[in-house]
Amino acid sequence: MIVLTDIYKQYRMGPNTVTALGGVSLEVPTGAFAAIVGPSGSGKSTLMNIIGCLDTPDSGSYRLAGEEAAELSDNRRSEVRNRHIGFVFQAFNLLTRANALENVELPLIYRGVGARRRREVATQMLERVGLADRMHHLPSELSGGQRQRVAIARALVGNPSILLADEPTGALDTATGEEILSLFEKLNAEGMTVLLVTHEPELAARAETVVRLLDGGVSAIENTKERRS
Amino acid sequence: MNAESQLIMLWENGAISIRSILANRGRSFLTALGVIIGVASVITLTALGQGARISVEERLGTLGANLMIVYSGEPRGTSLVRPRTTNIRPTLTADDLAMIESFPEELVVMTAPESSLSGQLKFENRNVTATVIGTHPNYTEIRNFAPIYGSFFGESDLENRRNVVALGAETYRELFPDGRDPLGSTVRINGFPFRVVGIMEEKGSPSQDASAIIPFSTFRRSLSGEDRYAMINIQAGSPEVMYDLQEQIEQALLAARRLPSIELADFYIANQMDLIGTVTEVADTFTLLLGGIAAISLLVGGIGIMNIMLVSVTERTREIGIRMALGAKSSHLMAQFLTEAVILSAAGGGIGIAVGYGLAWGLQRFGGLLTSVTPDSVVIAFSFALVIGLFFGGYPAYRASRLNPIEALRYE
Ligand SMILES: Nc1ncnc2c1ncn2[C@@H]1O[C@H](COP(=O)(O)OP(=O)(O)O)[C@@H](O)[C@H]1O
Ligand SMILES: [Mg+2]
């Protein structure tokens, strides 16, 4: 369960301050599939970063599984990211010098999993996203869609409860985007909480809930589907 | 984290570091170059310093054990090795010698007076200038200077003022260039005939190698006409008694001359301990100085590591952001970059040790310099390199661990 109450986040840009989030309140139940939409600069990424414990709000409360995120130590927040959250970024953010398998193993390294076990789990994950034959390729040797699938495998390898995807299909063609969304739906059906930031209305429409952001505030929350349980 | 996962992290950090070092081979080499040069120069320069010390000690060792010499002339320093002893006006008397010989065995083992002059040696049609030394048979033992062929003269030669000579190695080579056996041959020294009884060993010192040594009694009667001695060589009982003995002899000689202080004396005393002490002190200072200069270059190497590591941290900002997003703690990143710095400096140190050994060997083999690599310098230089890696890698590592994950991820 993700509960945000009156979240503010401002950035200082020289003499000006930019309000990225100006009082956002939002609840995402465990197992939900929510899409976050809004124009560029409306605060979507900032919101995702706060939910993912990568960033802290200036004020307001963010409770994750009952715990107040602001009260966690840096180390504890690292652990939360490592164990409970899977990130997928628009820019993939793969290590360029590591091959697909090594990239997918990364979260497990910081969890202290031994090399043999790591390899096993990462291999399974890559097989699951359909990259069994690309394990030893560097990111530069993969297509955009393949790279994003490596990133998804990496996000999932630690078996997180929440998947945060910030415009994961933004750099991909429609067909590939479609494929990735199907994968998310499947994961959600298995019980994972999925938050998806997207520009594309067709994709957003497939979520149960659509959260509309405008100028750092929530302008609408639409329930498009019945919640599956 | 439990012990096992700590171990896994350590291993992973090593693997990550080695991969990143190998990915930037050229830059890694340049980074380590400062450390390589530093370690190599510490090892090579201290090897040179120690080599100098050893060669001086060897040289001094061949002077003779527990040697003390009373010289005629005004006091000047404590040098046992004087370039010229032929021009000294002899001032030491037979009474002086008797006084010194009267010391008990524990203090004075034996003595040999010595005077010398520059003489003309002639054999067949060859003429050679040599230092003609008049002394006693004990001379060979006190000065650790023995005949290599034939024999030295003995007590009866001294008593009977026989015209016998032991030739220095150089003198022999010049008088007998055909290498013939000289024993029994007669050479002329300043016109007087002398029978050759032996050839002295090579000492590497011109005053001893280009010499002709004869009994003092003969020297006085035929060549110098002077009763007094230029020098008295003394073999002291042990190193411990050396200074005490020197003081006693000095006082006795001053008393015999009715002189109040050594400044006014017509003699001075030098002993081996002084000389060895001074020389090894100089060599050690030299070693320390060279080592210090080299250590500074190692320090500069450390700054090089810091410089390049800072660049590396900046270049890898995005990588750091990714690792943080995936759950790396600041301690993980700190450890990762520290490991990299330490691996770089350890590799640099290892290569530096090899280069240092190579240079020391090359200087000895091709440069004619005696070098001696001391294990201490290797251990110290290598540990110093590691410490420097830790120290100068520390700041970049700290910077990496303090990055804000969001900003690191946004970094282009
Ligand atoms: N690190 C930052 N420094 C300064 N301004 C920022 C930073 N991150 C975001 N912003 C600003 O905050 C606002 C919201 O940004 P963001 O959350 O990235 O929007 P979105 O993802 O919806 O496009 C924008 O105006 C952006 O310029
Ligand atoms: Mg964004």
State which percent range the strand residues of chain B make up: 15-25%
Rg from Cα of chain B: 34 Å
CATH superfamily of chain A: P-loop containing nucleotide triphosphate hydrolases
Number of domains of chain A: 1
Strand content of chain A: 25-35%
Number of strands of chain A: 10
Structural class of chain B: alpha+beta
Give the helix level of chain A as a range of percent: 25-40%
Number of helices of chain A: 7
- The helix tally of chain B amounts to 14
Task: Provide mean pLDDT of chain A, rounded.
Answer: 92
Query: What's the helix-strand series of chain B?
Result: HHEHEEHEHEHEEHEHEHEHHHHH
Largest sheet of chain B, in brief, is:
6 strands, mixed, barrel
In brief, what are we looking at here?
Chain A is an alpha/beta fold and 229 residues long.
Describe the 3D structure.
The complex is a heterodimer of chains A (229) and B (412). Chain A is an alpha/beta fold and 229 residues long. Chain A has a single domain (2-223), classed as 3-Layer(aba) Sandwich (Rossmann fold), CATH 3.40.50.300. Chain A is built from 7 helices and 10 strands. Chain A has a 6-stranded mixed β-sheet with strand order 6-7-8-3-9-10, with helices on both faces. Chain A has a 4-stranded antiparallel β-sheet with strand order 2-1-4-5, covered by helices on one side. In chain A, β1 (2-13) and β2 form a beta hairpin. In chain A, α3 crosses α4 and α3 (100-109) packs parallel to α5. The longest helix of chain A has 16 residues, at 174-189. Chain A is globular and about 45 Å long. The mean pLDDT of chain A is 92. Chain B has 2 domains: 3-58 and 278-410, no CATH class; 67-237, no CATH class. Helix content of chain B is 57%, strand content 17%. Chain B has 14 helices and 10 strands. Chain B has helices at residues 3-23, 25-61, 94-101, 139-142, 155-159, 169-175, 206-209, 216-224, 242-256, 272-315, 317-325, 330-367, 375-401, 405-410; strands at 67-72, 108-123, 126-135, 147-150, 164-167, 186-189, 192-200, 211-215, 231-236, 267-271. Chain B has a 6-stranded mixed barrel with strand order 2-3-8-5-7-6. In chain B, a hairpin with a 2-residue loop joins β6 (186-189) and β7. In chain B, α12 runs antiparallel to α13 (375-401). The longest helix of chain B is centred in the C-terminal third of the chain and has 44 residues, at 272-315. Chain B starts with a helix and ends with a helix. Classes of the chains: A alpha/beta (229), B alpha+beta (412). The complex binds adenosine-5'-diphosphate and magnesium ion (MG). Adenosine-5'-diphosphate (ADP) is lined by residues 11, 13, 18, 20, 38, 40-46 of chain A. The site of magnesium ion has 3 residues of chain A, from α1.
